[in-house]
């Protein structure tokens, strides 16, 4: 099976979500699946034991100053994700970070559908959190 793992942050940045994605991709690869990790940090696997492929998409330089789901950013990243997904042609997709990844993928409506794992601020249910602000639960 061909599995695309789509995430915002990835190794060599160090964090819980980055290692969760690495170990998930590593386990699926060990079980014989063809796995690619799509992220905006790196285009190479930074861990020596990695048996999966890594591909990078770019974000607009100013996206750190504007909402990540803004029209231009969504179009810019969405176009790249669409191209990367068409090129890899996955049988299954695992998205990590509900915001912004699930928002971007929702706009693409890719085939196959994707499963989302929430990390970090998306778990926050306060009115100020992205989960409430952007209607993530409805997506």
Draw up the topology in text.
Blueprint: E1 2-6, H1 16-30, E2 34-39, E3 53-56, H2 71-88, E4 92-96, H3 98-108, E5 114-117, H4 130-133
Parallel strand pairs: 1-2, 1-4, 2-3, 4-5
Helix pairs in contact: 2-3
Question: Which terms summarize this structure?
Answer:
alpha/beta; 17% strand; globular; 4 helices; 139 residues
How can the largest sheet be summarized?
5 strands, parallel
Output the structural class: alpha/beta
N-C termini distance: 26 Å
Give the strand tally.
Answer: 5
**Gyration radius over CA:** 14 Å
Strand neighbour order, sheet with most strands: 3-2-1-4-5
The overall average pLDDT, rounded, is 87
> Uncertain runs with pLDDT below 50, 5 residues or more?
none
Sketch the topology as an H/E string, one letter per element: EHEEHEHEH
Strand content bin:
15-25%
Share of residues in helices: 25-40%
Structure overview:
The protein has 139 residues and is of the alpha/beta class. It is 35% helix and 17% strand. The protein has helices spanning 16-30, 71-88, 98-108, 130-133, and strands at 2-6, 34-39, 53-56, 92-96, 114-117. The protein has a 5-stranded parallel β-sheet, with helices on both faces. Helix 2 (71-88) packs across helix 3 (98-108). The chain is globular. It starts with a strand and ends in a 6-residue tail after the last helix. The relative contact order is 0.17. The mean pLDDT is 87.
């Amino acid at each position: 099976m061909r599995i695309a793992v789509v995430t915002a942050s990835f190794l060599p940045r160090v964090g819980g979500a980055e290692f969760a994605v690495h170990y998930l991709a590593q386990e699926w690869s060990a079980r014989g699946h063809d796995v690619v990790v799509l992220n905006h940090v790196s285009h190479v696997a930074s861990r020596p034991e990695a048996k999966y492929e890594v591909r990078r998409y770019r974000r607009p330089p100013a996206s750190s100053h504007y909402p990540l789901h803004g029209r231009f950013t969504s179009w810019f990243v969405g176009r790249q994700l669409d191209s990367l997904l068409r090129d890899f042609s996955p049988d299954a997709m695992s998205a990590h970070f509900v915001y912004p990844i699930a928002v971007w993928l929702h706009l693409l409506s890719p085939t196959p559908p994707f499963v989302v794992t929430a990390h970090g601020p998306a778990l926050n249910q306060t009115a100020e959190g992205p989960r409430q602000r952007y209607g993530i639960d409805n997506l």
